[in-house]
Amino acid sequence: MKKINVGLLGLGTVGTGVVRIVENHQHDLTSQSGSPIEIVKILVQDKSKARNISVSPDLLTDNPWDVVENPEIDVLVEVMGGIELAKELILAGLERGKHIVTANKDLMALHGPEIMAKAAEKGCDVFYEAAVAGGIPIIRTLTDSFSSDRITKIMGIVNGTTNFILTKMSQEGADYAEVLKEAQALGYAEANPTSDVEGFDAARKMTILSTLGFRTEVALGDVAVKGIFQISKEDIAYGKRLGYEVKLLGIAEREDEHISISVQPTMVKKSHPLASVNGVFNAVYVHGEAVGETMFYGAGAGELPTATSIVADLVAVVRNLNLGIVGRRGFVSYNEKKLKSDEQIASKNFILLHVEDKAGVLAQITQVFAEYGVSLESVLQHPNAVNPFAEIIIITHDANKAAMNQVLEQFEAMDVVQSIKSVYRVEG
Ligand SMILES: NC(=O)C1=CN([C@@H]2O[C@H](COP(=O)(O)OP(=O)(O)OC[C@H]3O[C@@H](n4cnc5c(N)ncnc54)[C@H](OP(=O)(O)O)[C@@H]3O)[C@@H](O)[C@H]2O)C=CC1
Ligand SMILES: N[C@@H](CC=O)C(=O)O
């Protein structure tokens, strides 16, 4: 039984979890993969840093090439994050015939095709289950379990940090900045948390999921992105009154071979299963033509859930090594990419307006919707107790994005409209 040597690039939140699982589950890992797995070198930035796991100082190095050029190492597990250095090390590892496991969605969303091409050229495995939704096995599900189906929609809460923040704001009325600090302390947030709160982390994950689900090479620039920082307590309170929770959703849809992908705060009807996904939990809803509706739920970030996916990938690599095969997750060929136009993207919408509180205003507002063919599901109006204006909350029926943009442009130009406070997509 040949021992498999692993070089670990990074010993932060996720790397620590990988060391723990490899140590604690050694017997099971060997019996499932056919080989003992040993971490023989670990790259860190600062060897003198205090760590919440004890590892032999001999294992640590701050020189990446000690790991990547080590001929004894069979597999590189990249959990250091960042793009340029991680990419350089992974490509250098592949060049030397090393198999790769990574949690790096930033890298896979931007450079996945180049990395997969190098892996194919060198006959190596590249697995990245942990890159999307932490502990949920969604990548395997899309590439393996649904290979027989035609997926039409992937919709999910794929960022744990923002879901943690929105849950605390909704349930406890907590302050945004305070909860973000808590998410950072718990190891959920990215090194630069703006990528969580501005929606880019979710956009990278949706790039990966839609590429795999629609078998189409989706680029990060194809994803329309909106983050959570503009969500107010008022929006959350109104949503609740009307039976909605505000969630940051990644939404990828396919219709007549055309696709659209977005990340945006969304009012989700409380009866929809995504509305009750709280805290750091993630969930991904997948609709396939044959299978119908499915949903996958679990911890989307954090040390051990994420490490579970990494070590499962490691087992897959080792199994393949022992069988003498490679099992890259990718495609022989991709479908042609056709993006939906704004006229083809339709959804229900929630709009909160502050308007002058006088006769005829509501009629003027509804007239604008009628002009652009947007039909309304409900309209609520009531005076604001503090300020001399009225609040109007409108829920539309399905309306296309182009028409909605024209409606909003009209509102911007109307004297009776003091401000367009918020606009959300509505699901459920
Ligand atoms: N945290 C999570 O819940 C999840 C994270 N991920 C992804 O996993 C990856 C790792 O995340 P996480 O563990 O949270 O990150 P951390 O910041 O906690 O850890 C990063 C580790 O990499 C080391 N490192 C970083 N840059 C360098 C460098 N230039 N040279 C040498 N070592 C370096 C750090 O060294 P040192 O310790 O000395 O500072 C640290 O050990 C990221 O790609 C992230 O997006 C994916 C899913 C969930
Ligand atoms: N920062 C990310 C970590 C996992 O990918 C998140 O909060 O989901």
Features:
single chain, 428 residues, alpha/beta, Rossmann fold, Dihydrodipicolinate Reductase, domain 2, Alpha-Beta Plaits, 3 domains, 11-stranded mixed β-sheet, 6-stranded parallel β-sheet, elongated, binds NADPH dihydro-nicotinamide-adenine-dinucleotide phosphate, binds the ligand N[C@@H](CC=O)C(=O)O
Helix share, percent: 25-40%
Low-confidence stretches: none
Main pleated sheet: 11 strands, mixed
Bound molecules: NADPH dihydro-nicotinamide-adenine-dinucleotide phosphate, the ligand N[C@@H](CC=O)C(=O)O
GO biological process, one term: threonine biosynthetic process
Protein name: Homoserine dehydrogenase
Keywords: Amino-acid biosynthesis, Metal-binding, Methionine biosynthesis, NAD, NADP, Oxidoreductase, Sodium, Threonine biosynthesis
Cofactor: a metal cation
What do these coordinates show?
The model has no long low-confidence stretch (mean pLDDT 95). The protein folds into three domains: 4-133 and 303-323, Rossmann fold (3-Layer(aba) Sandwich); 138-299, 2-Layer Sandwich (Dihydrodipicolinate Reductase, domain 2); 346-427, ACT domain (Alpha-Beta Plaits). It is built from 14 helices and 17 strands. The chain is elongated. The protein has helices at residues 13-24, 26-33, 64-68, 84-95, 105-122, 138-145, 160-172, 176-185, 194-197, 200-214, 233-241, 303-323, 361-371, 401-413; strands spanning 4-9, 37-43, 60-61, 75-78, 99-102, 126-127, 151-157, 223-225, 244-255, 258-269, 281-288, 292-299, 346-355, 376-383, 390-396, 399-400, 417-427. The strands form two sheets. Strands 7, 8, 9, 10, 11, 12, 13, 14, 15, 16 and 17 form an eleven-stranded mixed sheet that branches. Strands 3-2-1-4-5-6 form a six-stranded parallel sheet, with helices on both faces. Helix 1 (13-24) packs across helix 12. Residues 10-15, 43-46, 49, 79-82, 85, 103-105, 130, 134, 187-188, 190-191, 301-302, 306 line the site of NADPH dihydro-nicotinamide-adenine-dinucleotide phosphate. The site of NADPH dihydro-nicotinamide-adenine-dinucleotide phosphate (NDP) has 28 residues, from helix 1.
